[in-house]
């Protein structure tokens, strides 16, 4: 029965008289015995240590450490600790749930809050021998994106954001993961299209007199005799940040807008929201001036991460959802700063 259907005082289940349709005989004394705790008192049938044990998808109000997104966001959290002692049957899920929920309700998830949360998760499982903890927070953020040309025209673009905090051997790491959607135009296809148009132009005007007006008229009608293939593409970027507040860049907090701007600028062709014809033409020019293979995209984004002084490591994965093929083109790049 749902909670909303319950009215009046909650019956005392220790007495049968409180339950309609039953006699007044009290329940046996054994009903008041402590509830069984299998995870604490039983032994596993197989003595195997476990790398991670926990929960995924805990719904929470999420406040990021970023002044650009001050409000609470709908978030989901994964939380886990290790279970190195093979004699322990299971961890205490409710302890992790309470710690994660309390941290999210208290305010923004600063690096200090996350470091304390991980330490508390480990401390709460001393009886399990746990020494490591990990939490992953997922949400989506909205950014207003102006049109390329048209004044006053804009729309909203949403971006997935994942915050990953992990404690291993007493050391805490903090990583930020996000995705940027962009357009990619194949350089080879562009070259083939240009050759096809050039050959048609030469064939049409071979031996004929040519003026600027006749050439312009021909191009207006025939410049798209062949067009290069382009497609929506995705850059998935994870960066490990320093956990000591403001770093060499002077940025504090997550600086999500700065990261998204860097990635979009490196690619040059982020997808647009609201557009008019002038904006669509500007986007076509951007695609023409940013021809890229999947390899080019991965290298450009990796370089943008490498140039950021607060990055400890970066992993870039790009995917071009090919319009020429039924399969995708993919590339990855990784970077770790010198110690």
TrEMBL record:
Reactions listed under catalytic activity: GTP + H2O = 7,8-dihydroneopterin 3'-triphosphate + formate + H(+)
A GO term (biological process) for this protein? Answer: tetrahydrofolate biosynthetic process
Region Disordered, residue ranges: 1-40
Looking at the UniProt entry, the stretches that span the membrane are none
**Annotated positions for site May be catalytically important:** 186
Pathway(s) per entry: Cofactor biosynthesis; 7,8-dihydroneopterin triphosphate biosynthesis; 7,8-dihydroneopterin triphosphate from GTP: step 1/1
**GO molecular function, one example?**
GTP cyclohydrolase I activity
Q: Cite the entry's keywords alphabetically.
A: Hydrolase
Superkingdom per UniProt: Bacteria
Keyword Oxidoreductase attributed: no
**Pfam families found in the cross-reference section:** GCHY-1 (PF02649)
E.C. designation(s): 3.5.4.16
Which residues fall in a coiled-coil region?
none
What general EC class does the enzyme of this chain belong to? hydrolase
Q: What does this protein do?
A: Converts GTP to 7,8-dihydroneopterin triphosphate.
> What family does the entry list?
Belongs to the GTP cyclohydrolase IV family.
* Protein name in UniProt: GTP cyclohydrolase FolE2
The species is Pigmentiphaga litoralis
């Amino acid at each position: 029965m749902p909670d909303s259907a319950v009215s009046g005082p909650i019956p005392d289940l220790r007495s049968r008289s409180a339950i309609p349709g039953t006699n007044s005989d009290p329940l046996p004394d054994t009903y008041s015995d402590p509830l069984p705790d299998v995870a604490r008192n039983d032994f596993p049938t197989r003595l195997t240590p476990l790398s991670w044990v926990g929960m995924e998808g805990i719904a929470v109000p999420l406040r990021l450490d970023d002044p650009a997104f001050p409000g609470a966001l709908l978030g989901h959290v994964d939380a886990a600790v290790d279970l190195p002692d093979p004699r322990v049957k299971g961890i205490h899920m409710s302890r992790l749930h309470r710690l994660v929920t309390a941290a999210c309700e208290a305010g923004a998830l600063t690096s200090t809050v996350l470091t304390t949360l991980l330490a508390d998760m480990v401390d709460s499982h001393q009886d399990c021998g746990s020494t490591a903890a990990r939490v992953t927070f997922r949400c989506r953020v909205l950014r207003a994106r102006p049109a390329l040309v048209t004044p006053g025209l804009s729309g909203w673009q949403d971006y997935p954001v994942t915050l990953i905090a992990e404690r291993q051997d007493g050391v805490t790491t903090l990583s930020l993961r996000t995705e940027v959607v962009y357009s990619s135009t194949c350089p080879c296809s562009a070259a083939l299209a240009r050759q096809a148009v050039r050959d048609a132009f030469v064939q049409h005007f071979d031996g004929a007199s040519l003026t600027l007006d006749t050439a312009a008229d021909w191009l207006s009608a025939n410049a798209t005799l062949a067009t290069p293939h382009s497609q929506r593409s995705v850059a998935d970027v994870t960066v490990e940040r320093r956990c000591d507040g403001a770093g060499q860049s002077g940025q504090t907090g997550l600086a999500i807008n700065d990261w998204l701007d860097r990635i979009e600028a490196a690619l040059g062709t982020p997808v647009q929201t609201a557009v008019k014809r002038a904006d669509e033409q500007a986007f076509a020019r951007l695609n023409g001036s940013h021809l890229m293979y999947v390899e080019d995209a991965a290298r450009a984004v990796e370089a943008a991460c490498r140039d950021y002084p607060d990055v400890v490591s970066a992993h870039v994965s790009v995917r071009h959802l090919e319009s020429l093929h039924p399969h995708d083109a993919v590339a990855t790049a990784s970077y770790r700063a010198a110690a």
